[in-house]
Write a structure and sequence with these properties.
The protein has six helices and seven strands; from the N terminus they run E-H-E-H-E-H-E-H-E-H-E-H-E. The chain is α/β, with parallel strands linked by helices and 234 residues long. It has a seven-stranded parallel sheet with strand order 3-2-1-4-5-6-7, with helices on both faces. The protein binds NADP nicotinamide-adenine-dinucleotide phosphate.
Length: 234
Amino acid sequence: MSNQKVAYITGGTKGIGFGIARILLGNDISVAFSGRKQEDVEKAEQELKQYSENVLGIVSDVRNLESEQEAVQRITEKFGRLDFVIANAGLGVFKPVDELSAEEWNSMIETNLTGAFYTLKASVEELKKTEGYYITVSSLAGANFFENGTGYNASKFGVVGFTQAAMIDLRKYNIKSTVIMPGSVATNFNGNIPSEKDNWKIQPEDMGNLVLDILKMNPRVLPSKIEFRATKPA
Ligand SMILES: NC(=O)c1ccc[n+]([C@@H]2O[C@H](COP(=O)([O-])OP(=O)(O)OC[C@H]3O[C@@H](n4cnc5c(N)ncnc54)[C@H](OP(=O)(O)O)[C@@H]3O)[C@@H](O)[C@H]2O)c1
């Protein structure tokens, strides 16, 4: 087994996942990341190669367990191990509950919540081998409900509960788990195009540095739930 640790980040083609990938690659961690479209995955892989050659882009959809199992197989074939899994892929549709369609509801539950479970399900045996780390990206919307947020709130409250219960199951194997609950991050989320107006927000590289700090903590301590917010919201 190679000594270099290996991370798998779901939804790494842009935004938070890309920011985490960039920081981990710059700190001697090999990175596999996923996205749904071949061309977006290839483009992100090319961009990430400037930080390290130890990067692997994978086309995978977190809503599909088989696809996640194949992704993990590709990671272990290429890198020989898997140490850190970051379940980040997610989306939001914000509408009053009476206007939210069943399809929109399902897209959030299946991606944000079931996707986090499928990613863990596909990788947990590898994490047992490396006594690794499982991190989920929930949201401050996982603790605070708001107008037009029913489906998103439900999925992100779910991710908080899921990760904390998984934390108790997994620590028996010396696998640590953390749920991160970010406030506003300057990404493409919900159709946003990052620009100067987003300078007050958490930046994707701040998320990367947070993940790096978490991974470096002494094995005896476990920050199981982290609220992470902009210092001065606009
Ligand atoms: N931005 C914020 O203010 C904020 C705040 C709190 C929490 N979050 C959470 O942070 C996470 C990342 O969001 P972001 O802000 O970085 O948004 P983003 O810029 O829109 O990026 C979302 C990422 O998720 C991927 N993705 C979406 N559905 C997927 C699926 N079914 N399978 C695999 N990958 C999928 C997208 O890849 P493709 O489109 O290429 O498939 C993309 O890489 C989400 O869980 C979001 O809820 C965001």
